[in-house]
Amino acid sequence: MIRSWMVIGAVAIAVAFSGNILGRNNMRWFRQLRRPKWLTFEPLIPVIWTVILICGAWSAYLVWESNPGTEQTWWLMAFYLLLEIVIIAYSPVTIRLRNLKAGTIVGGIGFIIGLILAFLVQPISNTAFWLLVPYLLWSPIGTYTTWAMHQLNGD
Questions:
Q1: CA-to-CA distance for 78 and 63, rounded, in angstroms?
Q2: What is the pLDDT along the chain (155 residues), one digit of tens a residue?
């Protein structure tokens, strides 16, 4: 029997890997951008995002298990999916368009969606809420970093 955590995990992994559609020329552009001097943690960013995405999937699992199959729970799963799509869209949007301003906007939209989702799931599962907090803490940092890079590089 297929368990809910398997489905949620498979969807999360599929969406995460769908963001790997960038060409080498586009990545070269991004690597050549000037960065703020305080951006010393850039090598940790992939690890940070991995933890955030795992926490998000775990949060979705807890919400699903609290009331599986109901209309409300399906809507919340759609909201989780929307959030992950926006998170993953950051790189393709920013890098394919070669536009840091667009990346800043995507980052801001993701934060708003994440904040709404966190408050929607808090009454259902306090743990699910807290598992979204790493994203809510990191998202403004990532968005600000993109904005700072935009200030240094323009578009």
A1: 12
A2: 788 888 898 888 888 888 776 555 678 889 999 999 999 999 999 999 999 999 999 999 999 999 999 999 999 999 999 999 999 999 989 988 999 999 999 999 999 999 999 999 999 999 999 999 999 999 999 999 999 999 999 76
What does the radius of gyration of the chain's CA atoms come to, in whole angstroms?
A: 16
Position 62: which residue type? Answer: L
Helix (H) or strand (E) holding 117: helix 100-121
Characterize 96-120 residue by residue with b for buried, 16 or more Cβ atoms within 10 angstroms of its Cβ, and e for exposed. Answer: eeeebebbbbbbbbbbebbeebbeb
Contact 60, 82 (CB under 8 A): no
Give the predicted TM-score (pTM) of the model. Answer: 0.90
61 is written with which tokens? 């699992």
